[in-house]
Fold Methyltransferase type 12.
Amino acid sequence: MIDRTAVRNNANYLRNVRPIDPEEIAEYIEGTPHPAVVRETLREEAFDLRLREREDGAFVPVEESPVDPPGWAPEALPEAYAFAVEDLLVREYGANWHRGESGDELRERVRRLKTDYLYENEVEYDHVAALGYAIYHLPAYYATVGYVLDDLTENGLIDRTLRVLDVGAGVGGPALGLHDYLPDDAVVDYHAVEPSAATDVLDRLLEETGRNFRTTVHEATAEAFLGLDEGEEADPATDDPFDLVLFGNVLSELADPVAVADAALDALAPDGSLVAFAPADRNTAIGLRRVERALVAGDGDGAGPGRDAEIYSPALRLWPDAIPSDPGWSFDVAADLAVPPFQRRLDEATARGETDEPGEFVNVDVQFAYSILRRDGKRRVDVEASAERCARMAESERHVTDRVNLLAVKLSHDLSEGDNALYRVGDGSQATDHYLVCTRETALNRDLREAGYGSVVFVENGLVLWNEDEGAYNVVVDDETVVDLVAP
């Protein structure tokens, strides 16, 4: 048994003098343990000591500065991860995994997964389903997590030592994206919670992560891990708080997502972030927003506990005393990825009739709904509406055919099909869907088009109309309207 206290003391002394060499430390420890034992002890203690291991085996201090936005814009799933997926498929079925009975079985599972998601059926992951999930979903989920984390790094809210809980980690898309998003000098204590056969795939893909991305896979349900099962205590891993809790495309699969997410808030550090994202389709996106609203303090609608959590982004509440009650279907869109080889192979080997189109097993669209919650009250932008300057969207009915000023969060890209540009917006008070409709772009309202998803804009002199067909309010932006970007 090595003297861990002595290892820590020596490391703390040397950190300010020179790189920490396990062989050197071994000489100062009673019994002169083997350097390999010292190295492994340092790896286990590295997170608490804020040390990272270099490629040469020495340990050096982690920088105190937070993670900077890395300019995340992946064009494809990295080759190493694509190779790992194919490696699993070849091991299971052989080199022609995409053909014959094995190809048919995988395609059938992918079809079943897509159907279950569409109709909100319970999804069960056996080994074959996990492989199908990796083929179809891994690339887009890999890309999604980085775009969401940009909201935090732009304000310096992710530290270079990061303790992460990935609830429902699946086959590892969010984990791999997080790994590549963070700088090489970050140290991560990563905990995955996944009860299904997806861990077979997850374990293989996590082998591709670096030496300072230390992983632990808990083969348990989220309820069991967080201590929600009757008579069961939470996993000891929850004794130390997490800086980042991820719910990547999993809330819609939980029996009680509000209870699980609420328990995850208890496991969150005071300055940590709960990050949830979901596919952009209506059911899962609205379901995510429903969970968000149940967790935020002040909702009081009986749907959930109403925690001391606040929305950091993107669906900011610009009126502090307001609570939205619209459906909340909102999602972001990023650039498509290149088609990975394993998707192309499975798709090209499909037997199709004359009317069947290729691409059934290609999924490289990066479209996602997301929510970031924090307990410290911080928001992505610190902006609030003023009754002296703005109308509330909750009161749009009384302003129909009037021109008003609005403070709004842009909650979509252009939803039109080539006609007048159409953007979903909210201010945190809305009970009905609201859209900004640009019928004539000018230099004074161009900010509406140029503003990114989640940006806050001030709309001056917009014309409020009721759209009977859509059951929504359209605020017309024309040559009499000014739109200013308040916060990007």
